[in-house]
Amino acid sequence: MYDGGKIIIGLLIFLAFATFPFYSNIGKSVAKPEPSLDTPVIKALEKKECVESKDFMRRNHMQLLIEWRDSALRDAKRDYVNSKGKHFRISLQNTCMKCHSNKKKFCDECHGYAAVDPYCWDCHFVKEGGR
Amino acid sequence: MFEKALQGRPKYWLWILFLLGITGAGFLVYLQQLKIGLGITGMSRDVSWGFYISQFTFLVGVAASAVMLVIPYYLHDYKKFSKIVILGEFLAVSAVLMCILFIFVDMGQPMRIFNVLLHPTPNSILFWDSVVLTGYLILNIVIGWTTLEADRKEVPPPQWVKPLIYLSVPWAVSIHTVTAFIYAGLPGRPFWMTAIMAARFLASAFASGPAFLIILALLIRKLTKFDPGKEAIQAIAKIVAYAMYANFFFFLLEVFTALYSNIPGHMASFQYLFAGLDGHGKLVPLMWLSVILAIFALAMLVFPSVRANETTLAITCVAVFISLWIDKGFGLVIGGFVPNPFERVTEYWPTLPETVISVAVWAFGFLVLTMLYKVAVSVREAQGPGESLH
Amino acid sequence: MSMDRREFLKLAGLTCIGIGVGGAQLLVRSRIASSEYAPAAEGLQANRWAMVIDLRKFRTEEDYDKLIKACHYIHNVPSFPDKYHEVKWLWKEDFEHSFPEQKNRYLPEGIEKKPVLLLCNHCSNAPCVRVCPTKATFKLSNGITAQDYHRCIGCRFCMAACPYGARSFNWVDPRPYIKEVNPEFPTRTPGVVEKCNFCVERLSEGLRPACVEASEGKILFGDLRDEGSEVRRYLAENFSMRRKPELGTEPAVFYIIGGGEEHV
To answer: What's the pTM?
Structure first.
């Protein structure tokens, strides 16, 4: 290998950059996320059910929100009929956030843990925990 | 071959460092723009495109002008250009990079830039502009690099570049035509809505780009051991002369149609740019400077003896470049927005942060240009005098 | 291991293509829920929404300002002190500047300076839709020119294309400039273009646009394709004008100018 030394130094520098997120977080502990359902609206619900099952929502809420967004905005279809035939008005701010009014304790809990920063609240209002 | 860009005298590195410094400063200001928004520029609801898009428009012309060397050399076998075609191609590369950067810094949501590819929209001219600009960038990198490498090895270039070279000719025309179409197809902007826009763009490109190349060629001869060739420079000077006359002619056609028709909407922008409108005339001195420089350059270019003298030629080329930069890199875009659709005047002037970012994009372009030219010049220096093989 | 540079590059290239194809598949979204989407049942439907603004009925400044206030509150439209950063959905401009091609110094007294209520024309052949490189602005089947703030890249081509000056750009963060927030409607993020949406969100709830409601009969709203609709009847009985009809954009906002009656 020509210039072996230089190449190895270059690779090392690259590795130092690429692994930055790992070693910069070593030793830091983040509490296990525990999203809270403790809001007045949810409490008042007789049957505590989201638009789809808990399992589905946990796995797919991001895709579902994108579908909702495109359906409402681009196809003017603002009525969502879920897998059980129940109707919901499509609106992040007025449907989702009406029950889950505790953004900090619900949304941010997992988003913070997973270090994702969705831009929903750059525009959509929340009563608390908004920017 | 790239290693040649990494070997140079202290002066070379000082220049590189200088350009890097400006680019870095501009980057810091750009971070500020990212944080606050485009509100740190002088643009407004009425003049919604400013310095960034003007620079983009002007630089597309500089990029397209490479074709003025490619056509004589590859289509007409004009041997005198054999050693400097590469200068045109590499100038195109750096100019297109600047174009892309200027579009990028002008975006309100730059992180969404790939929406253009994710949701391709063929009815949008901007979509086509992104296609032709990227294509032109790749074409010039591949063609320039391959032919230069062949020269360095003193072998003819591989056969497969020939079709690419022929393709690059219409492609160069396309980038500036598509850029003109961004403006020329908008209802309600009479200053831009002119069928001659693309032709005018090309004429001004074929004057400003080659004028810039002459300056660069003269600099290269002064600073390095590579001589681009007196005859080659003289041939480019002729191209500048013809293109500059064509450009001025086209401009006068625009003035005639606007003024003789006496249609208020078509006259208003010209009035604003050259005389001021409703008491607003920030651009008037600049526009007249552009006209005076153009007339001066036209007067100089017509005399063969002036062109033959490289000092007067250089002065003329600087005049051409500045004149066309004001015309297309400033007046054309701003003039289209003034007056606004309500026939009211909102003026525009770039702010300091906007200027710093723009200068930084230019500095980055010069950085790329310097390094590419360093490679090209090193190959030529090693080659010695004589024509190249392809 | 022996591999020359050429072979290495070939392999590396193939790997990149593989990753690219794999990545592209991630972008192709398929429906995730076994559920359906439909227009809201209570929503108002039309083939072509249109608006008729009867300027004869606007007499005081308050007649205009009330509507602008209603619109700007409902949609969280900021009010910037700096004219350069202005955001407007509904605003007033005097007649001579609203219809600049109608210059005529012998118009009835007061018409030249009479305010006209301006908004997006929701053109059938909208130039903004034609030029948008990402389909962030697009036509709904009911004729409304909609704007998708999630997709807008902020290139502002639509602002150059709109012959009516109907579009505003968020030059800076609008939130500090919203006096009173409507919690039911989103704001916008810096770097996107916005404009009047013909109250598409209210139509889906069975409500007429905010300005129409607040105007108390000065503005009519209805289906242009429906011969029996109020707007069609009104247009058949009154001489109306549209802004810059010569551009072929086919605006859906009609003005009844009148003249001779009392003015502001």
So the answer is: 0.91
